[in-house]
Structure formats: C-alpha cells, structure tokens
Design brief:
Layout (H helix, E strand, L loop, with lengths): L1 H20 L9 H15 L9 E2 L2 H6 L7 E2 L1 E16 L4 E13 L17 E3 L12 E3 L4 E4 L7 E5 L4 E16 L8 E10 L7 E5 L6 E3 L8 E15 L2 E14 L2 H19 L9 H24 L9 H38 L3 H21 L3 E3 L6 E2 L6 E2 L8 E3 L18 H19 L10 H32 L1
Parallel strand pairs: 3-11, 3-12
Antiparallel strand pairs: 1-2, 3-4, 4-9, 5-8, 6-10, 7-9, 8-9, 9-10, 10-14, 13-14, 15-18, 16-17
Helix pairs in contact: 4-5, 4-6, 5-6, 6-9, 7-8
Length: 498
C-alpha cells in the first residue's frame, strides 16, 4: 500500500518537472516570424555573396578517393526540371516554346542557422524574390535558348528557401524558346528534336559542378504534352562536359523528341490533290471531238494544284533539299501534265486519220496518171473491137457575102473516121471504171499502190487511232498511279516509325 503511494508521488513529481521544462521547447505563435527576421539579419551581417561557398572534405572521404583532392572543393548544384507546358513548335523559326519550373539546390555553409537561437521553431526561411540579390548564386542558365523570360503574375515567380543546415532551394517559373533540330526530308512524316542545355555561365567545374537531382526523378511533366500538329514520343536527359578556352564546364542536356501528326495534311493536301488528279483523268472518257472541254480539265487541275502547293510552301522554311511532300506534289503534277500530253497525242492521231480518209477521196498525181493510161488503153481496145467507117459528111452550103451568093463550107472536102461512142459505165459508184479487163487492170494498179504505202509506215503506234490511245490511258494512268502511291506510303510511314 505504501509502496504504491510512493510510486504515484514519484510519477507526479516527474510530470511536474517535465511541465516546467517544456515551455522552453514549444514555439509561441507569432514568435517564429520574429526569430526568422532576426536570424536572417544576423546571417546577412557576416555573409559575403561574392565568395563561392566551400565545403570541407573530411579525412575519411579523402582516403577513399583515388585522386587526392584539395581540402576545399566547389559547390555541387542539383538541377530539377518540371515541364509545365510545351505550347508551340514553329517550323519557320526552328524553335519550341516551353513553360518550365526550374529548380537549383545547393549547400551554402554561410547560410546555416541551425545553431541560432530560435531555429528549432523554423523549418526553413522562405524569402521573396528581392532576397535573391543578397545571396550567392551558381548562375545556372540555359545556354542554347533563343530567349527566356521569368513569369510575372503580377510579381516575378521566384521561390527561395533556406534550410537550417544551409541548403538553398531556388525555383524559377520561366518561359523559354529553345532550338529544335528539324529535317524535312520526310515531311510531313518527319520528326523533331528540341533540346535545353543548362550550364553555369560564370563558374567552371572547379567551383560549380552540375548534377541532375540525385534524389528522385530530375525531369517530370505536370501534364501530357499535347500539340495540334505534334505529339511527344520520349525524352532523354544526360550530363556532359564541354571544354572552353577558359576551362571545362558541366552541361545538363534534356532532349524532347516529337513526331508530326500528319492527319491535317491528309485532309488539306493529299485528298484534294488526289481529287485534282482524278478530275484530270475524266478527259479520257470524253469524246475526242470535245477538245475545249478536255483542255480545260487538264489546265484547271494543273493550276489548282500549283496554287495549293504554293500555299503549303509558305508555312515551311526555304530548304534546298527535296521534301517528302515535294515528291508527292511533283508526281501528281507529272500525271496531270501527261494527261495534257495524251490529249495532244490523240489530236495528232485523229488528224492523221482524217488526212488518210481525205487521201482516199482525192487521187494523187500518180494515181491520176495511171488512170489516164487505163482510159487510153480502154478506149483503144474498144476502138479496135468496133469497126470504124470512112464517111464524107454532107455539109450544106451556107450563104456568104452580101450579094446573096452561095459558098461551100471549108469542111466539105474533108474525110472523117466514124467510130461508135463509148458506152457509159454500169457502176454508178465509180463512174470512171468499167467492167471487164480494163477494170481489172485498174484495180490491180490501186492495190499495188496501197501496198507500197503500207511499207512506208511500219511503226506500231502509227496504226493506233485516238480511241485506242484513250482506252490505253484509261487503264495505264490509274494502275501506275496506284502502284506509285503504294510505294510512297509504305516507304515514308516506315521511316516515320523508326
């Protein structure tokens, strides 16, 4: 009984003693802000922002190193990157616009306040952007940027925190225009690589060494990168060293890889171009006599395609090599141009056919000479078959003179050969040809002359007519165009997936 009473008294005394000691360890509301102001003023009184913070290396750490380092070495700066948004990738400027949350973390012994009075009530010193000018900075910048700017909404978006052990964490919210490597050889199935390079502009590796954040993930995305004409495939970050005349610098490089979304170009370029080519082929089915309509189809399709291609070229840089879209457009222009050439060939064949028909209707000089000889022989044979008689025609005297005297005609004393008049031909279609041996002779002459003409035109295509050429192109153009498009799409889609 007494023992229990003694134990209770001892516990109560211990609690009373602890209650008396605890008020010195608890933080009073509003006192922490006062302590933070006092601690910050005390630190800045003895702090020199022009001196590079130096970390002393312990003896055990020096023994573990193969290469003996000096007792003091430079500052290790960890870089963390949080990509908020990729808003644009421009082909004309060859750059991308990114919104980044860029953090730098380093240790500065001169800003340590863990041994200061009241530090137990402070987890860190959170400062405004105005205090950045009063501390030492590693001066990490984006060396390959075309332009960068700190967001101000409404004040500059700079976060600065100092931890009790002297660790400094500074964060910028910036918009940066970084360069992009573009190769338009496979446009619009091409790829784009945009890079951002971080480097300490003022200090080499002897004073500042850069690292991607060694705890956790150094590069993260707030949201999925979505662009109207690109989508990101992957990203890579690495650390390299670069030798300048003034020394060696650390560089932190991040590369973002994008693939172009070519759905827009299919709807706005490829499909309209296919329609123009098909419209130009309608002339193959039109009547050969509709020459103005066929010419209008070809010329209007070619002009529309040229105008469309010029509008696309305005949005692209003026590169000297051939792009994938150029091959497609040149091929379509070639097919439209060949359809116009085919029209010229059809007109030439039709003109030749008309000339041949006219040659059949109108005889040449040689044919006329042959027929004249045939008529001569025909007349001579008929003259031999039918006997001719000699006669002296009785010609009446005609009065001549003024005195009523009668005078004989000068033809009265002449003797004539009377021959029968040739009979008219029986065939009404060829009035100059008669049946019989003479007709056979003239047919023989015509056949021989036609055989000689055929030997002068042995070329295969000269036997074609305009209708044959149209039928041939109705099959040749669609089949060859489909085959070329299969090769084109198989090649460029395979390259875009590599």
């Amino acid at each position: 009984m007494w023992r229990r009473k003694i134990e209770v008294r001892q516990v109560s005394r211990a609690l009373a003693n602890s209650m008396e000691a605890e008020p010195t360890e608890f933080c009073i509301l509003g006192q922490a802000e006062k302590d933070a102001t006092r601690i910050l003023n005390d630190i800045l009184k003895k702090y020199d922002k022009n001196l590079v913070p130096k970390m002393k290396v312990g003896e055990q750490a020096m023994k573990r190193e193969w290469i003996i380092r000096p007792p003091f070495q430079g500052v290790d700066v960890d870089v963390e990157l949080l990509i908020q948004k990729v808003s644009e990738i421009s082909e004309l400027t060859g750059a991308s616009t990114m919104h980044l949350l860029f953090s730098q973390i380093w240790h500065d012994p001169g800003l340590s306040f863990e041994h200061e009075e009241g530090s137990q009530c402070l987890t860190n010193l959170t400062l405004s952007h105005r205090m950045v000018d009063y501390i030492w900075l590693p001066n990490v910048c984006i060396v390959n940027s075309k332009g960068s700017q700190i967001h101000s909404s409404p004040t500059p978006n700079i976060f600065l925190a100092i931890f009790p052990n002297g660790t400094v964490w500074m964060n910028y919210r910036i918009v940066v225009e970084s360069p992009c490597e573009m190769d338009f050889s496979f446009f619009p199935m091409d790829r784009v690589m945009c890079s951002v390079i971080f480097e300490s502009y003022s200090f080499n590796v002897g004073k500042v060494r850069l690292h991607w954040k060694r705890m956790g993930r150094p590069v993260e995305f707030i949201d999925e990168v979505q662009l109207p004409d690109f989508h990101m495939t992957t990203h890579v970050y690495e650390k390299i060293t670069y030798n300048y005349p003034a020394g060696t610098w650390d560089q932190l490089n991040i590369k973002l890889f994008f693939r172009r979304s070519y759905g827009f170009y299919i709807l706005q370029i490829y499909l309209p171009t296919y329609c123009m080519v098909l419209i130009s082929w309608i002339s193959f089915w039109l009547d050969r006599k509709c020459l103005p309509a066929r010419v209008t189809l070809g010329i209007s399709s070619l002009m529309a395609l040229t105008l469309q291609y010029s509008n696309v070229a305005k949005s692209l840089p003026k590169v000297s090599y051939v792009k994938g879209l150029d091959l497609f457009m040149f091929g379509c222009m070639g097919y439209i141009f060949l359809s116009i050439v085919e029209l010229a060939c059809v007109s030439s064949l039709e003109l030749r056919r008309i000339n041949e028909q006219n040659e059949d209707k109108f005889l040449s000089d040689e044919d006329l000479r042959d027929k004249r000889n045939i008529f001569t022989r025909t007349f001579s044979t008929k003259f031999k078959r039918r006997p001719c008689t000699l006669s002296s025609p009785t010609v009446p005297d005609t009065p001549t003179g003024t005195n009523g005297e009668w005078q004989r005609s000068p033809w009265a004393d002449k003797t004539y050969i009377e021959c029968p008049e040739p009979r008219p031909p029986d065939d009404n279609h060829n009035p100059e040809v008669e049946k019989g041996e003479s007709n056979q002779m003239m047919v023989f002459v015509r056949r021989s002359s036609r055989r000689k003409k055929k030997k002068l035109t042995p070329t295969f295509f000269k036997r074609w007519s305009g209708e044959d050429m149209d039928r041939f192109c109705q099959k040749l153009f669609p089949i060859s165009f489909t085959f070329c498009n299969l090769i084109y799409w198989m090649y460029y889609t395979a390259k875009s997936k590599d």
